[in-house]
Design a protein that fits this description.
Elements lengths: L5 H16 L3 H13 L1 H24 L1 H7 L1 H25 L5 H5 L3 H13 L2 H10 L10 H34 L3 H24 L4
Protein backbone atom coordinates (compact mmCIF):
# COMPACT_ATOMS: atom_id res chain seq x y z
CA UNK A 1 0.00 0.00 0.00
CA UNK A 2 1.34 3.41 -1.00
CA UNK A 3 1.84 5.97 1.81
CA UNK A 4 -0.04 8.46 -0.41
CA UNK A 5 -3.44 7.79 -1.92
CA UNK A 6 -3.19 7.04 -5.66
CA UNK A 7 -5.62 9.80 -6.65
CA UNK A 8 -3.74 12.30 -4.50
CA UNK A 9 -0.49 11.25 -6.12
CA UNK A 10 -2.00 11.66 -9.60
CA UNK A 11 -3.00 15.20 -8.67
CA UNK A 12 0.37 15.96 -7.12
CA UNK A 13 2.55 14.87 -10.06
CA UNK A 14 1.35 17.49 -12.61
CA UNK A 15 1.25 20.19 -9.92
CA UNK A 16 4.80 19.39 -8.87
CA UNK A 17 6.01 19.20 -12.45
CA UNK A 18 4.50 22.60 -13.21
CA UNK A 19 6.42 24.06 -10.29
CA UNK A 20 9.61 22.30 -11.40
CA UNK A 21 9.25 23.92 -14.81
CA UNK A 22 9.00 27.40 -13.27
CA UNK A 23 12.44 29.06 -13.42
CA UNK A 24 13.84 29.51 -9.94
CA UNK A 25 17.03 29.53 -7.91
CA UNK A 26 17.68 25.79 -8.37
CA UNK A 27 17.33 25.93 -12.14
CA UNK A 28 19.48 29.06 -12.38
CA UNK A 29 22.18 27.49 -10.22
CA UNK A 30 22.34 24.44 -12.51
CA UNK A 31 22.42 26.78 -15.50
CA UNK A 32 25.29 28.78 -14.02
CA UNK A 33 27.33 25.70 -13.15
CA UNK A 34 26.76 24.23 -16.59
CA UNK A 35 27.94 27.39 -18.33
CA UNK A 36 30.94 27.74 -16.05
CA UNK A 37 32.15 24.18 -15.71
CA UNK A 38 30.39 21.84 -18.14
CA UNK A 39 27.89 18.99 -18.04
CA UNK A 40 29.38 16.95 -15.20
CA UNK A 41 29.35 19.97 -12.91
CA UNK A 42 25.76 20.75 -13.91
CA UNK A 43 24.69 17.20 -13.07
CA UNK A 44 26.55 17.34 -9.75
CA UNK A 45 24.73 20.57 -8.93
CA UNK A 46 21.45 18.95 -9.95
CA UNK A 47 21.90 16.02 -7.56
CA UNK A 48 23.13 18.28 -4.76
CA UNK A 49 19.98 20.40 -5.06
CA UNK A 50 17.79 17.29 -5.11
CA UNK A 51 19.41 15.98 -1.92
CA UNK A 52 18.98 19.38 -0.27
CA UNK A 53 15.31 19.33 -1.19
CA UNK A 54 14.83 15.91 0.37
CA UNK A 55 16.55 17.05 3.56
CA UNK A 56 14.18 20.03 3.69
CA UNK A 57 11.21 17.69 3.22
CA UNK A 58 12.40 15.41 6.02
CA UNK A 59 12.95 18.33 8.39
CA UNK A 60 9.52 19.73 7.55
CA UNK A 61 7.90 16.36 8.27
CA UNK A 62 9.69 16.21 11.62
CA UNK A 63 8.45 19.69 12.50
CA UNK A 64 11.82 21.45 12.41
CA UNK A 65 10.90 23.48 9.32
CA UNK A 66 7.90 25.00 11.10
CA UNK A 67 10.10 25.73 14.10
CA UNK A 68 12.53 27.73 11.92
CA UNK A 69 9.69 29.68 10.34
CA UNK A 70 8.24 30.47 13.76
CA UNK A 71 11.52 32.02 14.94
CA UNK A 72 12.44 35.05 12.82
CA UNK A 73 16.04 35.15 14.07
CA UNK A 74 16.73 31.61 12.85
CA UNK A 75 15.04 32.33 9.54
CA UNK A 76 17.09 35.49 8.99
CA UNK A 77 20.32 33.75 9.98
CA UNK A 78 19.75 31.07 7.34
CA UNK A 79 18.81 33.69 4.75
CA UNK A 80 21.94 35.83 5.23
CA UNK A 81 24.23 32.82 5.36
CA UNK A 82 22.78 31.88 1.98
CA UNK A 83 23.31 35.39 0.62
CA UNK A 84 26.91 35.40 1.77
CA UNK A 85 27.59 31.97 0.30
CA UNK A 86 26.13 32.90 -3.09
CA UNK A 87 28.23 36.08 -3.17
CA UNK A 88 31.29 33.99 -2.35
CA UNK A 89 30.47 31.70 -5.30
CA UNK A 90 30.04 34.75 -7.54
CA UNK A 91 33.44 36.07 -6.49
CA UNK A 92 34.96 32.66 -7.17
CA UNK A 93 33.46 32.61 -10.67
CA UNK A 94 34.94 36.04 -11.36
CA UNK A 95 38.35 34.89 -10.18
CA UNK A 96 37.99 31.84 -12.41
CA UNK A 97 37.41 34.02 -15.45
CA UNK A 98 41.11 34.74 -15.46
CA UNK A 99 41.72 31.04 -16.14
CA UNK A 100 38.92 30.47 -18.64
CA UNK A 101 39.58 27.74 -21.14
CA UNK A 102 39.20 24.04 -21.81
CA UNK A 103 41.58 23.02 -19.02
CA UNK A 104 39.69 25.09 -16.46
CA UNK A 105 36.43 23.39 -17.40
CA UNK A 106 37.92 19.92 -17.00
CA UNK A 107 39.46 20.60 -13.57
CA UNK A 108 36.32 21.54 -11.66
CA UNK A 109 35.81 18.83 -8.97
CA UNK A 110 32.25 17.55 -9.21
CA UNK A 111 32.26 16.69 -5.50
CA UNK A 112 32.84 20.31 -4.65
CA UNK A 113 30.04 21.43 -6.98
CA UNK A 114 27.70 18.87 -5.37
CA UNK A 115 28.50 20.27 -1.92
CA UNK A 116 28.02 23.84 -3.12
CA UNK A 117 24.61 23.03 -4.58
CA UNK A 118 23.58 21.24 -1.40
CA UNK A 119 24.55 24.25 0.70
CA UNK A 120 22.84 26.71 -1.64
CA UNK A 121 19.61 24.75 -1.31
CA UNK A 122 19.84 24.24 2.46
CA UNK A 123 20.63 27.92 3.05
CA UNK A 124 17.56 29.09 1.13
CA UNK A 125 14.75 29.58 3.68
CA UNK A 126 12.33 30.14 0.80
CA UNK A 127 12.53 26.38 0.20
CA UNK A 128 11.34 25.81 3.77
CA UNK A 129 8.37 28.11 3.22
CA UNK A 130 7.54 26.46 -0.09
CA UNK A 131 7.57 22.94 1.35
CA UNK A 132 5.46 23.94 4.35
CA UNK A 133 2.94 25.67 2.08
CA UNK A 134 2.78 23.17 -0.79
CA UNK A 135 3.25 19.61 0.44
CA UNK A 136 0.70 19.64 3.31
CA UNK A 137 -2.05 20.25 0.75
CA UNK A 138 -1.51 16.66 -0.40
CA UNK A 139 -1.03 15.07 3.03
CA UNK A 140 -3.81 13.10 4.72
CA UNK A 141 -3.60 13.73 8.49
CA UNK A 142 -5.33 10.40 9.11
CA UNK A 143 -2.26 8.60 7.74
CA UNK A 144 1.34 8.61 9.06
CA UNK A 145 2.79 12.03 8.13
CA UNK A 146 6.48 11.23 7.58
CA UNK A 147 6.00 8.51 4.89
CA UNK A 148 3.65 10.82 2.99
CA UNK A 149 6.08 13.74 3.12
CA UNK A 150 8.97 11.55 2.00
CA UNK A 151 6.96 10.03 -0.86
CA UNK A 152 5.85 13.43 -2.12
CA UNK A 153 9.38 14.75 -1.68
CA UNK A 154 10.86 11.94 -3.77
CA UNK A 155 8.34 12.53 -6.55
CA UNK A 156 8.98 16.27 -6.54
CA UNK A 157 12.76 15.77 -6.44
CA UNK A 158 12.63 13.36 -9.39
CA UNK A 159 10.75 15.97 -11.41
CA UNK A 160 13.36 18.53 -10.46
CA UNK A 161 16.18 16.17 -11.43
CA UNK A 162 14.72 15.79 -14.91
CA UNK A 163 13.95 19.47 -15.51
CA UNK A 164 17.11 20.92 -13.97
CA UNK A 165 19.13 18.12 -15.52
CA UNK A 166 17.97 19.06 -19.01
CA UNK A 167 18.74 22.74 -18.38
CA UNK A 168 22.16 21.96 -16.92
CA UNK A 169 23.04 19.48 -19.67
CA UNK A 170 22.36 21.94 -22.47
CA UNK A 171 24.11 24.75 -20.59
CA UNK A 172 27.09 22.45 -20.03
CA UNK A 173 27.21 21.54 -23.71
CA UNK A 174 27.29 25.22 -24.65
CA UNK A 175 29.88 25.96 -21.99
CA UNK A 176 32.22 23.18 -23.08
CA UNK A 177 32.07 24.23 -26.70
CA UNK A 178 32.77 27.90 -26.21
CA UNK A 179 35.26 27.46 -23.35
CA UNK A 180 37.83 26.46 -25.95
CA UNK A 181 37.92 30.16 -26.75
CA UNK A 182 39.67 32.02 -23.95
CA UNK A 183 37.63 35.19 -24.45
CA UNK A 184 34.29 33.35 -24.63
CA UNK A 185 35.21 31.24 -21.64
CA UNK A 186 35.97 34.39 -19.70
CA UNK A 187 32.57 35.79 -20.56
CA UNK A 188 30.88 32.55 -19.51
CA UNK A 189 32.54 32.81 -16.10
CA UNK A 190 31.30 36.38 -15.82
CA UNK A 191 27.78 35.31 -16.76
CA UNK A 192 27.93 32.59 -14.10
CA UNK A 193 29.12 35.14 -11.56
CA UNK A 194 26.20 37.36 -12.56
CA UNK A 195 23.75 34.50 -12.06
CA UNK A 196 25.11 33.71 -8.58
CA UNK A 197 25.09 37.41 -7.69
CA UNK A 198 21.50 37.79 -8.91
CA UNK A 199 20.46 34.80 -6.80
CA UNK A 200 22.10 36.43 -3.77
CA UNK A 201 20.20 39.68 -4.37
CA UNK A 202 16.96 37.75 -4.90
CA UNK A 203 17.44 35.92 -1.61
CA UNK A 204 18.34 39.13 0.23
CA UNK A 205 15.28 41.01 -1.03
CA UNK A 206 12.69 38.25 -0.82
CA UNK A 207 9.72 38.85 1.50
CA UNK A 208 9.60 36.60 4.54
CA UNK A 209 6.01 35.56 4.02
Amino acid sequence: MLPVDALTLLAFIPAGLALNLTPGADMMFCLGQGLKAGRRAAMAANFGIALGGMLHVTLAALGLGALVVAHPAAFEAIRWLGVGYLLWLAAGALRGSAFAGEVAVARVPVGRVFGQALLVNLLNPKVILFILAFLPQFVDPARPILPQFLTLGVVFSLGGLVVNGVVGWFAGTIGQRVARSESLGRWLSRISAGIFGALAVRLALMPRG
